[in-house]
Amino acid sequence: MKYCCQDCGREWDYPVLVCVFCGGVVSKVDISRYVVDEVVSVNVPSEDHPLIPYYVLMLKDSDGSYHFQKSFQRHNIGDIVNVCRSLQKTYTIGIVGTGITGKGIAEVALLSGSRIVWKSRSRSALINAIEVLFKKLSKRMSPDEAEALLENITTTTEWEPLSASDFVIESITEDLYVKRDTFRILDQICPLHVVLATNTSSLQISRISEGLLHPERVAGLHFFNPIARMQLVEIVRGKKTTDETIDKCRALVASLNKVDVVVADTPGFIVNRLLFVMINTACRMLDEGVAEVEDIDRAMKLGANYPMGPFELADLIGLDLCLEIIRNLHESSQGREYEASLALKKLVSAGCLGRKTGRGFYQYP
Amino acid sequence: MFITGIGRTKFGILDKSLPEMLYEAMQKTLQDSPLKIEDIDAVVISNFLAGPTTSQLHLGSLVTSLLPGTNLPAFRVEAACASGGTAVYMAGSLLSDYENIMVLGGEKLTGQMNKKIYKNIAMAGDLLRDQKEGLIFPAQYALVAAKYLKKFGLPPEDLALVSRKNYFNASKNPLAHFNYRDLTADAICSSPHICHPLKLFDCCPISDGAAGLIVSRNSLSQRDIEILGRGAATDAISISQRKDFTGFSAARCAAKRAYDAADIEPADIDLAEVHDCFSVAEVIAMEDLSFCRKGEAMDLIRSGETSLSGRLPVNTDGGLLADGHPVGATGIAQICEIVRQLRGEAGERQVSRPEIGLTHNVGGVGGTAVVHIMRRCI
Predict the structure, then answer these.
(1) Predicted local confidence at residue A52, as pLDDT
(2) What is residue A100's predicted lDDT score, i.e. its pLDDT?
(3) Are the beta carbons of B195 and A58 separated by less than 8 Å?
(4) With an 8 Å Cβ cutoff, is B139 touching chain A?
């Protein structure tokens, strides 16, 4: 995007209206085709760019103007790229589900230049999701740009359009049987090259893919909320998942400007398995009268340098979800550390579910 | 206009605050000068990052806190890494109002998370075009280096010649950040890549330090150094808004203005302090200042002509690479070094009887450039 004087041809990067040299009218010029002119690799982390190495591409547009673009993928000098808001290889990503996670994945996918096929059971859920997404995008760009970006979404209440995707990411309710049905349909309609991924946080990939014709293309892609802000994605390797599928998942995660870790198909993967020991233990310390809520949070923040204490985090996640995850972990591991605390169970049955209900371990105005 | 006093602190990782360093530089400058503090009519203060890094702004008033009861007029100047040179330039322009002006510059950068400092230094680039795209400062010059080496078919190892020379010079400068090191070519070439093709020793350190000088309308002693000519210029802030990546048009403009004002030729310069924030920056400075033709700077450096005993010694104090780069102080310290050399007071690193010296101070990746040309009073 640049601004060009219609009379003398001078250019600006800023939305100026009148040329100070000749008084001519300045208008906006849209450019989307760029050649990579130079690539600089950066091996030093800075506050806004903590992940290294990354690349800064110098791009030349058809008018001979230059632009910089950060990328986590190496490009070669001379490559021709089409720029949306990113240069990453772009994918068509199928998303099943319009919940918080589905919306979060859609947002980062759009921002990385991907196209989206979005499936939900209800038309109204889709309309609502697009509206929410428009509001989120409008914080980063002008309404015109946000609207243009939303044109990369195809919404559907049918399964069939998902078959045109490179990836389908399922993000529906945490119910093994509902998920299994979904994957059975996807396995039938999607060509073999399509990777089928589940965003489950507590179910085993191998159980979800049980009985499929092609379980080797099923993997877990576990995002963290709020997805636009959290950089991690856990890639979960089921028993039958092939290396090829994992490689494709890693490329997708990189294209979303996120960082992956590959983890075996075990209860809670890495983050939840560790995190919920802490949250549940903190709750049990309350049961035992070890310390007050505020003091336990303060201790972990100041003594272990955690950005949030266990109770603040539990309230943010939602106590019902915490309890569900702790119960799932207990069921699958039988570990004593996952025996749900009394304090947590009491709050959940009283409807105090954390921030979303205004009350959990803390009160929220 | 004349420089009638100079002074500076050691550069490096110092356990002093910005006001302490500024005070030390001021005290040394007054010791060096025939003037007393009562003779100073105004202060120009140069600093880049005290705001974002240490939450200290309003530096004019801060300096007056160091001079209780004086109520001196004090002005703060910021032009990224060219803040120092710009401050001296501004002081020169203010001589119509004031007779003697103290120029002080300093920077406190250590004792913070490096990640924060790298982000803050990147503020010298355009917010949207450069900073948001991760173009930190070494990446900017890595781009220049890649373009330069490619254009003239040179191997990246050539850049090590610059670092070697400057580290050697710093070993003779007790106030330099890297005074203790004589760096081997092997150590330079085996250091890690920061941004390809730039390695660790191609990059200047992050230093603390302060420097000062006094600019006067009239000469007061034999030791005064005359400012013969000066030039300042700017260019678009992001290098992506330009067409030439192997030189800085701001530096060429500032140099031309300074040469014209002094009415001399580049060949008349006996020594120079150039802005070597990265090794490649010294290479292109040689060309922007017309010390050689485009593409020939590497030959000039390789031949030893810019070493202490050469025809045109460059960065005799170790330059930014080895003397250090306390940003607000840098441009002032460059002038201090030329003054010291022209007076014949440079000790172990004194070059043989120089008459005319030049300083070249650059902000960002060529967004601002200031050139001063000075002459010994004969």
Answers:
(1) 85
(2) 87
(3) no
(4) yes
